[in-house]
Amino acid sequence: MRILLVSCGFPYPLDGGGPNIIYHWLEAASTTHDAHLLVISEQSNVPESIPGLPRLKIHSSQIQISRTLWGRARRQAASLFRSTPATSLVLMSPAVQHHLKDLLNRYHFDLIILAENIVAGFAPLLRSSSPVLLLKLFVDASEAKDHRMRHGRFHPRWMLEEYLSGRFEANTCRAASMVCCVTQQDVERLISRYRLSTPVVPIPLGVDLNRFPCRGNVPATQVIGFIGGLTWGGNVDAMHWLCREVLPRVWRTHPDAKLLAVGPGGESFRSLYADSRIHFAGRVPSIPEAMKEVSVGVVPIVSGTGMRTKLLDMLSMGIPTVSTSLGAEGLSYLQGEHFLIADSGETFANSLCTLLSDDDLRRRLAASGRLLASAYSWEKIYPKILEVFDLAFRQYHQNTINVRGAQAWSYATSGGAGKTGPP
Fold it and tell me: Where do the domains of the chain lie, and which CATH numbers do they carry?
């Protein structure tokens, strides 16, 4: 099978959730198929190869983004007219569409994967020519609602953004041959929200056990660790909740406890939470190295959708962890066996205090958490990804046969009136 994956930006190095996921989907595709990657980017010098993927063929299409006031105004007007977010319209420029059409004519792909929500707008344009698999890392409309609640519940701009996100998501999901989500909860959210007849299947995210190796010991420190970019809204909400609702309660029992937050975007938090016990490390060369003195990990997610790889990353490193129920979506786990679950500020703080005080519990959770992470290694996820490729391909061609059969039946029963031949 010849497969084309369309991505916004180059998915390497693996310094974020999106690039990491796209890389491993490409690795799965290139193991048994003729895999191609189309990178849509402002960059003019997109690399011709990705380390570890020697069989992957890379194509690139450059976009020009006008950042003038007039350019932004034009994009917003076009966004309203076409019910498409402005960020997606930028990627769907005439030049990119022409390049994509040229690739389709040249390679005759058996399957096209739209790897991010931002490139989902190509689904309606491609559905008549190729099977389209839409990979959704989260539910757009739910994320837009969270953004509106975060920045202005009744602000017209964010209300409009939420409306456009919902329209766009509905249209692109219905246009795809198959939709793939990362959790069963997201599958149910999409189907119930849009009454989809398009097949929607869950494929969980994985963890690279070599990139996040298990630590040799569980340090008996008072360091609490957080992993995540503080530019994504869900992580922003998580950090505010952790610093305002959880840490003050922890410090009543463990006044020397410290928080280490690893990931880009912490500049604004440094001034907001100017406490010597809170350290925003920013982007680091090695997450395992930065987290080596962490005693307890936290996944304090209180908003958003999708699956949080940060939990798998910490479990893989053998870090005993406390998570909210939302932060653990997508995993099959046992509460108290693989990690601790707490959903209020008080219970989350109590769980942290328990772990900080109990060496035996930390060691037990570190060992069982590592076993759970190994069940979600990317190598074990790849067969599921390859199966979805086949399902999407068969679904498209079955639908094509059904449509042609219905057209032929309609022609026959109408007696061919007003027509010169069959469809």
Answer: 2-205+379-406 (3.40.50.2000), 223-375 (3.40.50.2000)
